[in-house]
Design brief:
163 residues, alpha/beta, Nucleotidyltransferase, domain 5, 5-stranded mixed beta sheet, 5 helices
Length: 163
């Protein structure tokens, strides 16, 4: 069995989802969204993300973490904030000595939906089909579960062990 934590990074809303892979079967464990107050102190927001991710990792004991790589936005400030949130998630995984993998948005959409240019509602639909007991309603959590599903489908060549 592999327990995988998927992360859809964001400073305001960070989606997370955990699945177990048992052979070729995927089983939903838990999911959620960590939210921080927009416009608040960035340091305090990052601490909130980190504390909550560490708590999730300690409570649910994933062995691997898969995170979405950023899509380069036209707004450099937004891209930088997304980078901060991503780094916080990577730090939490590295501190727990988890295997870390990263996937592009198009790769995730292709893996979950079959099209690299799928819309968010299509990802949500397929996550609900693949994990019918999840009852996911938040798009950020559905995206995170999509990242975990993508990782479960990938071979070991994309894994990067943490030193």
């Amino acid at each position: 069995m592999r327990r995988i934590l998927g992360i859809d990074p964001g400073l305001a809303h960070m989606g997370w989802g955990i699945i177990d892979q048992i052979g070729s079967r995927l089983v939903h464990v838990e999911h959620g969204v960590i939210s921080t107050k927009a416009g608040g102190d960035i340091g305090a927001r990052l601490v909130t993300l980190h504390i909550q991710l560490v708590s999730i990792i300690q409570r649910l004991s994933p062995l691997e973490i898969a995170i979405e790589q950023p899509f380069v936005h036209k707004d450099p400030s937004a891209a930088l904030k997304l980078g901060y949130a991503r780094a916080t998630a990577l730090l939490a995984g590295a501190q727990a000595n988890l295997v870390i993998a990263e996937y592009t948005p198009n790769h995730i959409k292709k893996s979950v939906v079959g099209s690299g240019h799928a819309q968010k509602d299509q990802v949500m639909f397929m996550v609900r089909r693949l994990l019918p007991t999840a009852g996911v309603t938040e798009t950020d959590a559905a995206d995170a579960l999509g990242v975990a599903i993508t990782h479960a489908h990938m071979c070991g060549d994309r894994l990067r062990p943490v030193l």
